[in-house]
Amino acid sequence: MGNSLRRAILFGVMGVAAISNASDFNLTPFQINLSAGVPRMLEFINDTILPAQPAYPGLGDSLGIDLDVVKSLKNQWLEEFDWNAEQRDMNLLPQYTAEIEGHKIHFVHAKSHDPDAIPLLINHGWPGSSFLEFEPIIDKLTTVVHTSHSGLDKKVSFDVIIPSLPGFAFSSPAPKNWTLDDTARIYNRLMTEVLGYPKFAVHGTSHGAAIAYTLYEDYSNTTRAAHFSFIPFFPPTGEQVKAMNISLTPLEKDMLDRSDEWSKTGNAYFLLQQYQPNTIGLALQDNPIGLLSWIGEKYIEWSNPSAGTPPSLLTHNEILRCVSLYFLTKSFITSIFTYAQNPTAFRSVYTKAPTTAPMLLSQFRYNVGYWPRQIAESVGNLVEYRNHESGGNFPGLDNPEALISDIRRIGEYWA
Questions:
Q1: 239: Cβ contacts below 8 Å, ≥ 6 apart
Q2: What is the pLDDT of residues 72-104, one digit of tens each?
Q3: Burial classification of residue 337, based on how many CB atoms lie within 10 Å of its CB (0-12 exposed, 13-18 middle, 19 or more buried)
């Protein structure tokens, strides 16, 4: 954890304390304290007996996570992973809870020293359990840098706000009929009423992209820029792209093929979590190795094949942090209800948001969706479009430097 982040933590506490109406929302500093549940978690892990051999040798990961990978992760969990050390690192981040419309929302609020910093609301998705998948980018985004992309020297930095979605980690579960539109509404209140920002930028991925896009589309007076690494529209098929006479680079063709493959064989989890969340939720809620297999597969399958080697920081330890947080907070079942509560979160018809605010899209080679520029232009005021050779669904871990650089481009258009 860098010195600038530690300074940002102090500044963040001072900044929040100065907000006059913070008491209206029961704004409270927050520290993670889940150590009491760790012995039981480790006991469950140790007592879980995995098969000595695969049921059908030679399949590898073609039909799900590889047994040898699960065994390796299990051993690392028992022998190397240190929850208390991870928890201490997490608690270096300035965290709070606020009560908005009767819902407890947990969030990170790391402030820049620059009074002109751009407020940036970062929205995670699933299986991202909270702020963890963006932890590597927080420090650098709060740091002031000077850019000259347009020939003019500009300074760029951000106040970074990362809420845990309702039902995830330390935020309260969403009510039965809650939708991501409701989450967008209370996030807008978090930014404008709780934290006092009259305008802000957003970043989103997965279900977080649906929240960010709703803010971009419906709250354009306050949401004045949007950066996405995933947009909440079903990606086009290869046949649709061909019919539109869209030319693709070799990288884009590879990304489209991967997107097509996910649509055909990779979305079984999506359907199960949408239509039978109780079934998989009850099966895995109190089962750490089960959670590891279910969630770990996504981290591995949706990431760079060389994940964990530069520029990627997505090590097996990161997977264990995420899964441990799900298990210790008992939030898996409420997190996946997001799918059942939002069957139309990802739209099938491309419609353009009625806003002039700039939209930026960064796509990473090993993600599960791909959108050509022509389609991205049809849903927003697209000003930046970038494709990256490295990274996947978790670019904050898998290619953090590229994500930081692309998010900083917001500064070119911020007014």
A1: none
A2: 999 999 999 999 999 999 999 999 999 999 999
A3: buried
- Paired tokens of 414: 């911020």
Q: Are 207 and 273 in contact (CB under 8 A)?
A: no
**CATH homologous superfamily of domain 3-412?**
Alpha/Beta hydrolase fold, catalytic domain (3.40.50.1820)
SS3 state at 159: strand
> φ and ψ at 301, to 5 degrees?
-70, -30
pLDDT of residue 20: 46
- pLDDT (tens digit per residue) in 8-30: 444 444 444 445 466 789 999 99
For the entire predicted model, the pTM comes to: 0.94
Retrieve residue 31's tokens. 């520290």
* pLDDT for position 16: 47
SS3 265: helix
Residue 139 neighbours by CB under 8 Å, 6+ apart: 1, 2, 4, 5, 8, 110
Alpha helices (H) along 48-148? 67-79, 83-90, 135-142
Residues of the chain with pLDDT under 70: 1-22, 149-152
The structure tokens listed for 299 are 């981290």
SS3 256: helix
Question: Can you tell me the distance from the alpha carbon of 240 to that of 297, in angstroms, rounded to the nearest whole number?
Answer: 29
Q: Where are the domains of the chain?
A: 3-412
Please choose, from the candidates 207, 12, 5, the residue with its C-alpha nearest in 3D space to the C-alpha of residue 90.
Answer: 5
- 3-class secondary structure, 84: helix
For residue 244 the two structure tokens come to 């539109």
